[in-house]
Automatic annotation (TrEMBL):
EC number: 1.11.1.7
UniProt name for this protein: Peroxidase
Protein species of origin: Solanum pinnatisectum
Binding positions (heme b): H195
Compartments where located: Secreted
Function: Removal of H(2)O(2), oxidation of toxic reductants, biosynthesis and degradation of lignin, suberization, auxin catabolism, response to environmental stresses such as wounding, pathogen attack and oxidative stress.
Amino-acid positions noted as binding Ca(2+) 1 in the UniProt annotation, renumbered to this chain: D74, V77, G79, D81, S83, E92
Site (Transition state stabilizer): R69
Residues binding Ca(2+) 2, per UniProt: T196, D247, D255
Length: 331
Protein backbone atom coordinates (compact mmCIF):
# COMPACT_ATOMS: atom_id res chain seq x y z
CA UNK A 1 0.00 0.00 0.00
CA UNK A 2 2.69 2.47 1.05
CA UNK A 3 4.64 1.54 -2.04
CA UNK A 4 1.60 2.18 -4.23
CA UNK A 5 1.14 5.70 -2.80
CA UNK A 6 4.81 6.45 -3.20
CA UNK A 7 4.63 5.36 -6.80
CA UNK A 8 1.64 7.48 -7.74
CA UNK A 9 3.03 10.55 -5.98
CA UNK A 10 6.21 9.96 -7.89
CA UNK A 11 4.27 9.81 -11.15
CA UNK A 12 2.43 13.00 -10.33
CA UNK A 13 5.67 14.80 -9.54
CA UNK A 14 7.11 13.59 -12.84
CA UNK A 15 4.05 14.82 -14.74
CA UNK A 16 4.18 18.21 -13.00
CA UNK A 17 7.89 18.61 -13.73
CA UNK A 18 7.22 17.65 -17.35
CA UNK A 19 4.42 20.21 -17.67
CA UNK A 20 6.50 22.97 -16.13
CA UNK A 21 9.32 22.17 -18.55
CA UNK A 22 7.03 22.18 -21.57
CA UNK A 23 5.49 25.51 -20.57
CA UNK A 24 8.94 26.93 -19.93
CA UNK A 25 10.36 25.75 -23.25
CA UNK A 26 7.44 27.20 -25.23
CA UNK A 27 7.86 30.52 -23.47
CA UNK A 28 11.59 30.74 -24.06
CA UNK A 29 11.89 29.42 -27.59
CA UNK A 30 8.78 28.75 -29.48
CA UNK A 31 6.18 31.33 -28.80
CA UNK A 32 4.76 29.10 -31.47
CA UNK A 33 6.90 30.17 -34.42
CA UNK A 34 9.10 27.66 -36.22
CA UNK A 35 11.36 27.52 -39.25
CA UNK A 36 9.49 26.20 -42.29
CA UNK A 37 5.98 26.81 -40.92
CA UNK A 38 4.67 27.12 -44.51
CA UNK A 39 6.70 24.26 -46.02
CA UNK A 40 3.59 22.19 -46.71
CA UNK A 41 0.80 24.83 -46.71
CA UNK A 42 2.55 27.36 -48.96
CA UNK A 43 5.94 26.05 -50.05
CA UNK A 44 6.63 29.00 -52.36
CA UNK A 45 5.96 31.71 -49.75
CA UNK A 46 9.58 32.37 -48.79
CA UNK A 47 10.88 32.34 -52.36
CA UNK A 48 8.14 34.75 -53.49
CA UNK A 49 9.10 37.19 -50.74
CA UNK A 50 12.75 36.91 -51.72
CA UNK A 51 12.23 37.45 -55.45
CA UNK A 52 9.91 40.39 -54.71
CA UNK A 53 12.46 42.08 -52.44
CA UNK A 54 15.17 41.48 -55.07
CA UNK A 55 13.20 42.95 -57.95
CA UNK A 56 12.09 46.05 -56.02
CA UNK A 57 15.63 46.53 -54.71
CA UNK A 58 16.97 46.55 -58.27
CA UNK A 59 14.80 49.50 -59.24
CA UNK A 60 14.91 51.21 -55.82
CA UNK A 61 17.73 50.25 -53.39
CA UNK A 62 16.14 52.30 -50.57
CA UNK A 63 13.53 49.58 -50.02
CA UNK A 64 16.12 47.36 -48.27
CA UNK A 65 16.82 49.71 -45.34
CA UNK A 66 13.18 50.69 -45.43
CA UNK A 67 11.94 47.13 -44.84
CA UNK A 68 14.52 46.36 -42.18
CA UNK A 69 13.50 49.42 -40.19
CA UNK A 70 9.81 48.71 -40.77
CA UNK A 71 10.14 45.26 -39.20
CA UNK A 72 11.87 46.78 -36.14
CA UNK A 73 9.09 49.36 -35.80
CA UNK A 74 6.48 46.61 -36.15
CA UNK A 75 8.01 44.37 -33.48
CA UNK A 76 8.44 47.13 -30.86
CA UNK A 77 4.76 48.11 -31.01
CA UNK A 78 2.20 45.36 -30.23
CA UNK A 79 4.81 42.73 -31.15
CA UNK A 80 5.66 41.48 -34.66
CA UNK A 81 2.04 41.39 -35.82
CA UNK A 82 1.96 43.57 -38.93
CA UNK A 83 0.29 46.41 -37.00
CA UNK A 84 2.60 48.88 -38.79
CA UNK A 85 1.14 47.87 -42.16
CA UNK A 86 -2.42 49.07 -41.52
CA UNK A 87 -3.22 52.32 -43.31
CA UNK A 88 -5.75 54.96 -42.38
CA UNK A 89 -6.29 57.83 -39.95
CA UNK A 90 -4.91 57.32 -36.44
CA UNK A 91 -2.98 54.11 -37.25
CA UNK A 92 0.63 53.41 -36.23
CA UNK A 93 1.86 54.40 -39.69
CA UNK A 94 0.83 57.98 -39.00
CA UNK A 95 2.77 58.29 -35.71
CA UNK A 96 5.80 60.65 -35.88
CA UNK A 97 8.53 57.93 -35.70
CA UNK A 98 6.88 56.06 -38.58
CA UNK A 99 6.03 58.73 -41.12
CA UNK A 100 9.24 58.20 -43.13
CA UNK A 101 9.07 54.40 -43.26
CA UNK A 102 9.35 53.00 -46.77
CA UNK A 103 8.76 49.75 -48.60
CA UNK A 104 5.03 49.18 -47.99
CA UNK A 105 4.58 48.53 -51.73
CA UNK A 106 7.00 45.57 -51.52
CA UNK A 107 4.90 43.88 -48.81
CA UNK A 108 1.68 44.52 -50.76
CA UNK A 109 3.24 43.10 -53.93
CA UNK A 110 4.53 39.94 -52.18
CA UNK A 111 1.20 39.44 -50.42
CA UNK A 112 -0.73 39.71 -53.68
CA UNK A 113 1.49 37.09 -55.34
CA UNK A 114 1.26 34.77 -52.33
CA UNK A 115 -2.54 35.10 -52.12
CA UNK A 116 -2.72 34.01 -55.76
CA UNK A 117 -1.07 30.66 -54.96
CA UNK A 118 -2.20 30.00 -51.37
CA UNK A 119 -5.03 32.29 -50.29
CA UNK A 120 -5.55 32.98 -46.61
CA UNK A 121 -2.46 31.13 -45.40
CA UNK A 122 0.54 33.45 -45.03
CA UNK A 123 0.41 36.35 -42.57
CA UNK A 124 1.56 39.87 -43.38
CA UNK A 125 3.61 39.84 -40.16
CA UNK A 126 5.59 36.87 -41.54
CA UNK A 127 5.98 38.47 -44.96
CA UNK A 128 7.51 41.53 -43.28
CA UNK A 129 9.84 39.40 -41.10
CA UNK A 130 11.01 37.50 -44.20
CA UNK A 131 11.39 40.69 -46.24
CA UNK A 132 13.58 42.20 -43.49
CA UNK A 133 15.82 39.11 -43.63
CA UNK A 134 16.04 39.33 -47.42
CA UNK A 135 16.87 43.04 -47.24
CA UNK A 136 20.10 42.06 -45.49
CA UNK A 137 20.75 39.45 -48.17
CA UNK A 138 20.45 41.90 -51.06
CA UNK A 139 22.80 44.35 -49.34
CA UNK A 140 25.42 41.57 -49.24
CA UNK A 141 24.99 40.52 -45.62
CA UNK A 142 24.57 36.95 -44.39
CA UNK A 143 21.22 35.22 -44.38
CA UNK A 144 19.54 33.21 -41.61
CA UNK A 145 16.46 31.04 -41.03
CA UNK A 146 13.39 32.96 -39.90
CA UNK A 147 10.91 31.08 -37.71
CA UNK A 148 7.43 31.73 -39.12
CA UNK A 149 3.83 31.19 -38.02
CA UNK A 150 3.05 34.72 -36.81
CA UNK A 151 -0.54 35.89 -37.16
CA UNK A 152 -1.70 39.39 -37.96
CA UNK A 153 -2.89 41.71 -35.21
CA UNK A 154 -6.20 43.52 -35.12
CA UNK A 155 -5.02 46.72 -33.45
CA UNK A 156 -3.03 49.64 -34.88
CA UNK A 157 -3.00 52.91 -32.92
CA UNK A 158 -0.67 55.87 -33.42
CA UNK A 159 -0.63 56.42 -29.65
CA UNK A 160 1.19 53.09 -29.07
CA UNK A 161 4.36 54.17 -30.91
CA UNK A 162 5.99 55.60 -27.76
CA UNK A 163 7.76 52.25 -27.13
CA UNK A 164 10.15 53.13 -29.90
CA UNK A 165 13.53 54.50 -28.85
CA UNK A 166 14.29 58.11 -29.79
CA UNK A 167 17.46 59.40 -31.44
CA UNK A 168 18.36 61.71 -28.53
CA UNK A 169 17.95 59.02 -25.90
CA UNK A 170 20.70 58.02 -23.48
CA UNK A 171 22.20 54.55 -23.66
CA UNK A 172 20.43 53.70 -20.39
CA UNK A 173 17.07 54.64 -21.88
CA UNK A 174 17.84 52.69 -25.08
CA UNK A 175 18.82 49.67 -22.98
CA UNK A 176 15.60 49.94 -20.98
CA UNK A 177 13.43 50.03 -24.08
CA UNK A 178 15.20 46.98 -25.50
CA UNK A 179 15.13 45.14 -22.15
CA UNK A 180 11.36 45.70 -22.01
CA UNK A 181 11.22 43.57 -25.17
CA UNK A 182 13.55 40.86 -23.86
CA UNK A 183 16.61 42.18 -25.69
CA UNK A 184 19.94 42.64 -23.89
CA UNK A 185 22.82 45.09 -24.40
CA UNK A 186 24.45 42.92 -27.05
CA UNK A 187 21.16 42.76 -28.96
CA UNK A 188 20.89 46.55 -28.75
CA UNK A 189 24.33 47.23 -30.23
CA UNK A 190 23.91 44.47 -32.81
CA UNK A 191 20.46 45.52 -34.00
CA UNK A 192 21.27 49.23 -34.11
CA UNK A 193 24.10 47.98 -36.35
CA UNK A 194 21.26 47.80 -38.90
CA UNK A 195 22.25 51.44 -39.49
CA UNK A 196 25.05 49.99 -41.64
CA UNK A 197 22.54 50.49 -44.46
CA UNK A 198 20.17 53.32 -45.19
CA UNK A 199 19.92 57.02 -44.54
CA UNK A 200 18.63 59.61 -42.11
CA UNK A 201 16.88 62.88 -42.86
CA UNK A 202 18.87 65.95 -41.75
CA UNK A 203 16.04 66.88 -39.36
CA UNK A 204 17.08 64.04 -37.00
CA UNK A 205 20.67 65.14 -36.45
CA UNK A 206 21.38 68.66 -37.77
CA UNK A 207 20.83 70.04 -34.22
CA UNK A 208 24.16 68.32 -33.38
CA UNK A 209 26.04 70.37 -35.98
CA UNK A 210 25.37 73.92 -34.84
CA UNK A 211 23.96 74.97 -31.49
CA UNK A 212 24.05 71.58 -29.74
CA UNK A 213 22.16 71.67 -26.41
CA UNK A 214 22.39 75.49 -26.47
CA UNK A 215 26.19 75.37 -26.20
CA UNK A 216 26.61 77.60 -29.25
CA UNK A 217 28.84 74.93 -30.82
CA UNK A 218 28.58 71.44 -32.32
CA UNK A 219 28.31 68.15 -30.43
CA UNK A 220 31.91 67.63 -29.23
CA UNK A 221 31.74 63.90 -29.96
CA UNK A 222 31.70 64.59 -33.74
CA UNK A 223 35.07 64.09 -35.44
CA UNK A 224 36.61 67.50 -36.36
CA UNK A 225 37.24 66.63 -40.01
CA UNK A 226 33.81 65.04 -40.40
CA UNK A 227 31.92 68.04 -39.00
CA UNK A 228 32.34 70.35 -42.03
CA UNK A 229 31.30 67.50 -44.33
CA UNK A 230 28.09 67.01 -42.39
CA UNK A 231 27.50 70.76 -42.21
CA UNK A 232 27.82 70.91 -46.00
CA UNK A 233 25.28 68.10 -46.35
CA UNK A 234 22.87 69.66 -43.85
CA UNK A 235 23.22 73.45 -43.84
CA UNK A 236 21.75 75.35 -40.89
CA UNK A 237 18.06 76.04 -41.53
CA UNK A 238 18.35 74.00 -44.73
CA UNK A 239 16.07 71.27 -46.07
CA UNK A 240 15.36 68.95 -43.12
CA UNK A 241 14.11 66.20 -45.39
CA UNK A 242 17.42 65.82 -47.24
CA UNK A 243 18.88 62.34 -46.64
CA UNK A 244 22.41 61.42 -45.51
CA UNK A 245 23.99 57.94 -45.19
CA UNK A 246 23.91 56.52 -41.64
CA UNK A 247 27.14 54.65 -42.46
CA UNK A 248 29.38 57.10 -44.34
CA UNK A 249 31.12 55.39 -47.26
CA UNK A 250 29.11 52.15 -47.06
CA UNK A 251 25.43 53.04 -47.25
CA UNK A 252 24.44 50.05 -49.39
CA UNK A 253 26.59 47.33 -47.84
CA UNK A 254 25.74 45.26 -44.80
CA UNK A 255 29.17 45.32 -43.14
CA UNK A 256 31.01 46.47 -39.97
CA UNK A 257 31.94 49.86 -41.43
CA UNK A 258 29.19 51.46 -39.29
CA UNK A 259 31.07 50.40 -36.14
CA UNK A 260 34.37 51.83 -37.46
CA UNK A 261 32.56 55.08 -38.04
CA UNK A 262 31.32 55.13 -34.43
CA UNK A 263 34.88 54.57 -33.24
CA UNK A 264 36.01 57.52 -35.35
CA UNK A 265 33.35 59.97 -34.15
CA UNK A 266 31.45 59.60 -37.39
CA UNK A 267 28.13 58.36 -36.06
CA UNK A 268 25.21 60.30 -37.53
CA UNK A 269 22.52 60.07 -34.86
CA UNK A 270 23.23 61.17 -31.31
CA UNK A 271 21.93 57.78 -30.10
CA UNK A 272 24.39 56.01 -32.44
CA UNK A 273 27.47 57.93 -31.32
CA UNK A 274 26.58 57.35 -27.66
CA UNK A 275 27.08 53.61 -28.21
CA UNK A 276 30.78 54.42 -28.36
CA UNK A 277 30.73 56.86 -25.41
CA UNK A 278 29.05 54.46 -22.99
CA UNK A 279 31.36 51.73 -21.65
CA UNK A 280 28.69 49.01 -21.58
CA UNK A 281 27.90 49.32 -25.29
CA UNK A 282 31.39 50.32 -26.43
CA UNK A 283 32.74 46.82 -25.64
CA UNK A 284 30.37 45.29 -28.18
CA UNK A 285 31.39 47.80 -30.84
CA UNK A 286 35.01 46.89 -30.08
CA UNK A 287 34.24 43.18 -30.27
CA UNK A 288 32.70 43.61 -33.72
CA UNK A 289 35.79 45.52 -34.81
CA UNK A 290 38.10 42.74 -33.60
CA UNK A 291 39.67 45.02 -31.00
CA UNK A 292 39.18 42.61 -28.10
CA UNK A 293 41.21 39.57 -29.12
CA UNK A 294 39.53 36.27 -28.31
CA UNK A 295 36.36 38.15 -27.32
CA UNK A 296 35.82 39.06 -30.98
CA UNK A 297 32.30 38.63 -32.37
CA UNK A 298 31.14 38.25 -35.97
CA UNK A 299 28.58 40.94 -36.66
CA UNK A 300 27.02 39.12 -39.62
CA UNK A 301 26.35 36.02 -37.51
CA UNK A 302 25.18 37.83 -34.37
CA UNK A 303 22.89 40.07 -36.39
CA UNK A 304 20.88 37.04 -37.55
CA UNK A 305 20.70 35.72 -33.99
CA UNK A 306 19.48 39.02 -32.53
CA UNK A 307 17.01 39.44 -35.40
CA UNK A 308 15.45 36.06 -34.60
CA UNK A 309 14.98 37.25 -31.01
CA UNK A 310 13.50 40.57 -32.13
CA UNK A 311 11.25 38.82 -34.67
CA UNK A 312 9.70 36.77 -31.89
CA UNK A 313 8.61 39.70 -29.71
CA UNK A 314 5.03 39.23 -28.47
CA UNK A 315 3.98 37.26 -31.55
CA UNK A 316 0.42 36.07 -32.08
CA UNK A 317 0.22 32.39 -33.03
CA UNK A 318 -2.26 29.51 -33.25
CA UNK A 319 -5.77 30.89 -33.51
CA UNK A 320 -4.98 34.37 -32.17
CA UNK A 321 -5.26 37.33 -34.54
CA UNK A 322 -6.00 36.67 -38.21
CA UNK A 323 -4.44 36.11 -41.61
CA UNK A 324 -5.14 39.35 -43.46
CA UNK A 325 -6.33 39.27 -47.05
CA UNK A 326 -4.68 42.62 -47.74
CA UNK A 327 -1.76 43.77 -45.58
CA UNK A 328 -2.89 47.39 -45.27
CA UNK A 329 -6.35 46.59 -43.86
CA UNK A 330 -7.92 44.36 -41.20
CA UNK A 331 -10.18 41.61 -42.59
C1 LIG B 1 18.03 53.12 -30.30
C2 LIG B 1 17.48 52.58 -31.34
C3 LIG B 1 17.23 53.27 -32.65
C4 LIG B 1 17.02 54.60 -32.94
C5 LIG B 1 16.95 55.76 -31.97
C6 LIG B 1 16.85 54.70 -34.37
C7 LIG B 1 16.58 55.87 -35.05
C8 LIG B 1 16.57 56.00 -36.42
C9 LIG B 1 16.35 57.23 -37.14
C10 LIG B 1 16.06 58.59 -36.51
C11 LIG B 1 16.46 56.96 -38.46
C12 LIG B 1 16.30 57.93 -39.63
C13 LIG B 1 14.91 57.78 -40.20
C14 LIG B 1 14.67 58.59 -41.44
O1 LIG B 1 15.21 59.69 -41.58
O2 LIG B 1 13.89 58.11 -42.31
C15 LIG B 1 16.74 55.55 -38.59
C16 LIG B 1 16.91 54.89 -39.78
C17 LIG B 1 17.09 53.53 -39.88
N1 LIG B 1 17.02 52.61 -38.86
FE1 LIG B 1 17.07 53.03 -36.91
N2 LIG B 1 16.99 53.45 -34.93
C18 LIG B 1 17.20 52.56 -33.92
C19 LIG B 1 17.32 51.20 -34.04
C20 LIG B 1 17.23 50.50 -35.22
C21 LIG B 1 17.14 49.07 -35.34
C22 LIG B 1 17.10 48.10 -34.16
C23 LIG B 1 17.08 48.77 -36.66
C24 LIG B 1 16.97 47.44 -37.37
C25 LIG B 1 17.25 46.27 -36.88
C26 LIG B 1 17.14 50.03 -37.37
C27 LIG B 1 17.17 50.17 -38.73
C28 LIG B 1 17.21 51.38 -39.40
C29 LIG B 1 17.43 51.49 -40.83
C30 LIG B 1 17.72 50.34 -41.78
C31 LIG B 1 17.34 52.85 -41.14
C32 LIG B 1 17.43 53.50 -42.52
C33 LIG B 1 16.03 53.68 -43.04
C34 LIG B 1 15.96 54.17 -44.47
O3 LIG B 1 16.98 54.39 -45.11
O4 LIG B 1 14.81 54.31 -44.94
N3 LIG B 1 17.21 51.06 -36.46
N4 LIG B 1 16.79 54.99 -37.33
CA1 LIG C 1 3.43 45.47 -34.34
CA1 LIG D 1 27.55 49.60 -44.39
Amino acid sequence: MAYYYYNSINKMVTIIIFLVLVIDVTMVFGQGTRVGFYSSTCPRAESIVQSTVKSHFQSDPTVAPGLLRMHFHDCFVQGCDGSILISGAGTERTAPPNTLLRGYEVIDDAKQQIEAVCPGVVSCADILALAARDSVLVTKGLTWSVPTGRRDGRVSRASDASNLPGFTESVDAQKQKFAAKGLNTQDLVTLVGGHTIGTSACQFFSYRLYNFNSTGGPDPSIDATFLPQLQALCPQNGDGSKRVALDTGSVNNFDTSYFSNLRNGRGILESDQKLWTDASTKVFVQRYLGLRGVLGLRFAVEFGRSMVKMSNIEVLTGTNGEIRKVCSAFN
